[in-house]
Write a structure and sequence with these properties.
Strand content: under 5%
Order of helices and strands: HH
Helix content: over 70%
Radius of gyration: 17 Å
Length: 73
């Protein structure tokens, strides 16, 4: 395997690792939001709405990072 191919493969692995790290951070942030909403006395329908908005933002952010890192869809 040439050095160029090895470098390209490591680059793909690094980009994939960044995508996984960003996904984990998003999951942790949604968990914090859910915990905060549960500690407040927010009605359940507002909690559901906040969860759906947070989920939509995370999907958009994942797509943005995916495209920004150079992956093709």
């Amino acid at each position: 395997m040439s050095n160029l191919k090895r470098k390209i493969n490591l680059n793909k692995i690094a980009r994939g690792g960044l995508l996984v790290a960003a996904t984990i951070v998003q999951i942790l942030l949604i968990n914090e939001l859910a915990g905060w909403l549960m500690s407040q006395r927010v009605p359940s329908n507002w909690q559901l709405l906040a969860g759906m908005v947070a989920g939509a933002v995370c999907v958009w952010f994942s797509w943005w990072i995916y495209r920004r890192l150079g992956f093709k869809s």
